[in-house]
Each structure stands twice: as structure tokens, then as C-alpha cells.
């Protein structure tokens, strides 16, 4: 594993954009396969409880290809220039010391969402995932901007995206689990009615 890591570091030093594009594509593809496996596993447990026919895992390769292409064509190149540019702007233009509290806080704020975007997410997505995701990603990004060298930040985020993809697949399979109802109980009655609750 150490040899693989050293090889990756060498590739990153020699061809940073190409390395991050390829690693993003691989990680996003593997993440989608893992998400499909989680979905299948959760569905299997449900079918065993209801005595329905259990389906074996059949990977949707078209979906994997689409996700991989997204990682290759968008996440890799955009992520590379985003993290490099963000680091340069905050370090050079704002003249903040790397890894200081203000440096990290500025990066997290720039990487975050506006209140209007968050409001739209609440309308579009279900509340439990929003609350859980909203608690995890800022912590992931604080650790990223504080402890991870800028050339590894995209790789770090991609690995958390892989885990996040599996987590969101698991959340989706939970349907109307009691813990989801608990989260929805915090919504005003008017909004609950709009969500069918």
C-alpha cells in the first residue's frame, strides 16, 4: 500500500491535473458500485423480512460509466483548479497564514452554500439526509483545509464522496424508518402536510 501511495505522489507531482482527473474517475466509479451494493444489501434484508423474492446484485454498468465519466470530466478537472485556486486566493490575496483558523474558516465558507441554496435543498431533499450531511461535511472540510496538503485535498474529498454515496443509498433504502419520522417531527405542521406526513 505504501508503494502505491508513493507512486500516486510521484504521479501527482509530475502530472497533477491528469492524476486528479483519473483518480476522481476511479473513485467515483468505485463509489457508485459500492452504493449499488449497499442498496442491494439493504433491499435484500427488507425482502427477507417480507418473504419477497430476493434479487442478486446486478451492477448497472451504464450508471457506473456515467458516474465515472462525471468524475473524469467534471469533478477531477474542476476540483483540481477549485482547490488550487482557493488556496492561492486565500493565501496570496487575503494574505492569511496557511492552516491558521482564519485561513481554514475562509476556505470552509467559500466552499459552503448560501442560505438560499440551503433552503432549496430542504425543499428538494428529505430532512434527515440534510441534517446528517450538514453536520458531517463542514467537519470533513475543516479537517481537509486544516490538515491535508492542497495537492491531496481533491483525493480526500473524493474518498468522502465515495462514503457519502454509500450513505445516501442506505438512507434512501430506509423508506419511512422511525428515525426518519423523528427528524420530520421538527418540521412545522404546514410543511409536514406538504411532504405527505
From TrEMBL:
<dbReference type="GO" id="GO:0005737">
    <property type="term" value="C:cytoplasm"/>
</dbReference>
<keyword id="KW-0472">Membrane</keyword>
<dbReference type="Pfam" id="PF04117">
    <property type="entry name" value="Mpv17_PMP22"/>
</dbReference>
<protein>
    <submittedName>
        <fullName>Protein sym-1</fullName>
    </submittedName>
</protein>
<comment type="similarity">
    <text>Belongs to the peroxisomal membrane protein PXMP2/4 family.</text>
</comment>
<dbReference type="InterPro" id="IPR007248">
    <property type="entry name" value="Mpv17_PMP22"/>
</dbReference>
<keyword id="KW-1133">Transmembrane helix</keyword>
<dbReference type="GO" id="GO:0016020">
    <property type="term" value="C:membrane"/>
</dbReference>
<keyword id="KW-0812">Transmembrane</keyword>
